[in-house]
């Protein structure tokens, strides 16, 4: 079936089976490999994307659910010349080690900060509890999200 949606600001019309998983569609069909897959069962957050600005797990979404939506993957966030404030804070605070969890973590943080512009450290921990990281011990990720909140100063994350 034909599916129409916006992907990182561009209108798309693609042909896909309605039950194709969005993570496969992004990684295999559209070659957007910044979206990662680990558990494949909704438990790790590696496959997080934004759907109409809200963090969603692409391993649990089907292609048909993209119809009419606006999708943001990590490829649509910031650029090499100008990182998004959340990306910048992850770099500045050393919150990236192997990097596998980072795309999902950044996108989940953007959604979290939209809803919680001035979060406490505890709120950050709870807000990102669905995104697992094997490397950092989470402390630096919390530092990064706290710093991003202060850089953004309550402004919405693009
Ligand atoms: S791969 Fe989707 S939540 Fe783990
Ligand atoms: S930086 Fe390696 S899993 Fe998070």
Descriptive labels:
single chain; 5-stranded mixed beta sheet; binds FE2/S2 (inorganic) cluster
Description:
The structure is a single chain. With 158 residues, the chain is of the alpha+beta class. 32% of the residues lie in helices and 15% in strands. It has helices at 22-29, 85-92, 102-115, 121-127, 139-152; strands at 2-7, 10-15, 48-51, 54-57, 70-72.
Task: Describe the secondary structure blueprint for this structure.
Blueprint: E1 2-7, E2 10-15, H1 22-29, E3 48-51, E4 54-57, E5 70-72, H2 85-92, H3 102-115, H4 121-127, H5 139-152
Parallel strand pairs: 1-5
Antiparallel strand pairs: 1-2, 3-4, 3-5
Helix pairs in contact: 2-5
Bound molecules: FE2/S2 (inorganic) cluster (FES) (2 copies).
Q: What integer is the average pLDDT? A: 96
Helix content: 25-40%
List the uncertain runs. Answer: none
Order of helices and strands: EEHEEEHHHH
| Distinct ligands, ions and cofactors found in the model | FE2/S2 (inorganic) cluster
* Assembly state of the chains shown: single chain
C-alpha Rg (nearest Å):
15 Å
Short synopsis of the structure:
This protein is of the alpha+beta class. The chain has helices at residues 22-29, 85-92, 102-115, 121-127, 139-152, and strands spanning 2-7, 10-15, 48-51, 54-57, 70-72. A five-stranded mixed β-sheet has the order 2-1-5-3-4, with helices on one face.
